Amino acid sequence: MAMSHSVVIVGSGFGGIGMAIRLREAGIGDVVILEKAGELGGTWRDNTYPGAACDVPSHLYSFSFERKTDWSRRYPQQPEILDYLRNCARKYGVLPLVRFGTEVTGARFDAERALWRISTTRGELEARVLVSACGQLNRPVLPPVEGRETFAGPSFHSSRWDHGADLDGKRVAVVGTGASAVQIVPEIAARAESLTLFQRSAPYVIDKPDRPYRPWEKAVLRTVPGVYGLSRAKIYAAHESRAVAFVKYPGLMGIMERSFRRSLAGQVADPALREALVPGYPMGCKRILRSNDYYPALAGPGVTLVTDPIARVTPSGVETRGADGRTAAHAADVIVYATGFASTDFLAPMRITGLDGRELNEAWRDGAQAHLGITVSGFPNLFLLYGPYTNLGHNSIIYMLESQFRYVLGCVDAVRRARLDWIDVRPDVQDAFTREMRERLRSTVWETGCESWYMTADGKVVNNWPGFTFAYRRATRRPDPRHFRARRGASEPAPLA
Q1: H helix or E strand, kind and range, residue 119
Q2: Which EC class does it fall in (predicted)?
Q3: What is the pTM of this model?
Q4: Which of 125, 151, 410, 418 is the most buried (most CB within 10 A)?
Q5: How many Å apart are CA 60 and CA 188, to the nearest integer?
């Protein structure tokens, strides 16, 4: 017989670990975290490529309830972020709750028993409440390029880095120019004999005001009351102010764009290369990237930027085709695919079935929908963290996650106190929220004429929150009982212990 639990969380990144901590603090001890990998950490476990780092300052890219005053630098790097998350799991006692090597393949809501029946690669278990903390950037995408499997040397996605591949003195091809590539290219250019970067569209890359923290600064942050909180508040306010351009007045991006062009001119002397690095879409429409060494690396010796589309991969490299139809061969010993993630699929490839046999993939056939990005109508006692309409272009996702923790706790507490079988967000409430999001998104910079990972295949932006983060926190302060339908008494629900 399947073991039954109060809450099962899928994923052990910032969302899963933070949610488990908050649940335990609320007195709900019967919590299980299912993790398909052998270690916790989510995206910071998976992305171990050279140069991996965060583009949000460390004092803000951390839990408000677990302040770390000894970050080594202003913008944290992957190993330090992963260590921070491990320390949180140990300190708050949630590490023993994680079942590693357990991949969720599906979940079906048993309405009669008011339980989620969860199928995993290690058997079945049950839960009163199911929380998805899978995130948006966990399923790597490889380009559908002819011949990709024929390449004779090492080839891999940036989030599945092959640390056994020797890059020193080799000819390395990097496909893609997103956030990962901007960090990888400078690191590899310094080691490889040559680096060829294949660019489909140029990103906007701005300066990253990064530096190590001095010993005296760490001492002050550690010992002087209020300094850390002031630093965090200052960083938050500076980042939050940028929402004005992203979601209110996209025309303000023109000021940043002119600053970008001046900076680019100062870093890239070659006019032809500089012209190729100027994006052909408004600034902010795609993710704005931060780096101090990307453009200098591209302007350096041994690095070639290729803007012709890839025609196919061959055993010895990459072949492109120009506008005139002519092909060109680019020899490579190693290929790195920095080609992003299936960001709009959310819970895929899990098969989630709610009331009346309704499948989540079917419910989302026109794009993912969830009220406040958290609850989905027809799927009782299911809660999403970092779901649709909760991604940001200007601030820390940890802030958004903490808002979601509070909302989920409010829902769980309502179920517990009223001894409800389940709660389910009303379809009209979800539909109204979705209409509001889509209407507000039309006036944002993300819908000014580009394709991005924020969009579905048919052009709907379903990832981003079209407003200020403090407005989202206000909206998620507590669940509104009027937004939900509930069942009580049809069965005797197991307590949320």
Answers
A1: strand 115-120
A2: oxidoreductase
A3: 0.95
A4: 125
A5: 29
> Which residues contact residue 157 at a Cβ distance below 8 angstroms, ignoring those fewer than 6 apart?
140, 141, 142, 336, 337, 338, 339
Q: Give strand ranges (E) for 298-452.
A: 303-306, 310-314, 317-321, 327-331, 334-337, 351-353, 382-384, 422-425
Query: Shortest CA distance to 84 belongs to which of 65, 97, 71?
Result: 71
Beta bridge partners of 173: 196, 335
- Write the CA distances from 423 to 133, 296, 367, 376, 413, integer angstroms: 19, 55, 23, 11, 11
Instruction: Report d(CA 404, CA 397) in Å as an integer.
Output: 11
Position 217, amino acid: E
CATH of 3-139+342-487, one of 3.40.50.2300, 3.50.50.60, 3.40.50.280, 3.40.190.10: 3.50.50.60
Percent of the chain whose pLDDT exceeds 90: 91
Round to whole Å and give the CA distance between 136 and 154: 27
pLDDT at residue 474, as a whole number: 98
pLDDT tens digits, 12-54: 999 999 999 999 999 998 999 999 999 999 999 999 999 999 9
What 8-state DSSP symbol labels residue 77? B
Contact 291, 186 (CB under 8 A): yes
C-beta separation of 217 from 409 below 8 A: no
Cβ-contact 445, 250 below 8 angstroms: yes
Residue 57, classed as helix, strand or coil, is coil
Give per-residue pLDDT as tens, 385-422: 999 999 999 999 999 999 999 999 999 999 999 999 99
Tens digit of each residue's pLDDT (9 = 90 or more) over 211-230: 999 999 999 999 999 999 99
Task: Taking residues 453-461, report their average pLDDT.
Answer: 88
Asked whether the predicted pLDDT for residue 490 surpasses 70, the reply is no
Task: Determine the pLDDT at residue 139.
Answer: 86
**H or E stretch at 31:** strand 31-34
Beta bridge partners of 212: 73
The CA angle 497-26-128, to the nearest 5 degrees, is 40
Residue with tokens 């970067």: 197
> Which residues belong to CATH 3.50.50.60 in the chain?
3-139+342-487, 148-212+240-337
DSSP state of 464: B
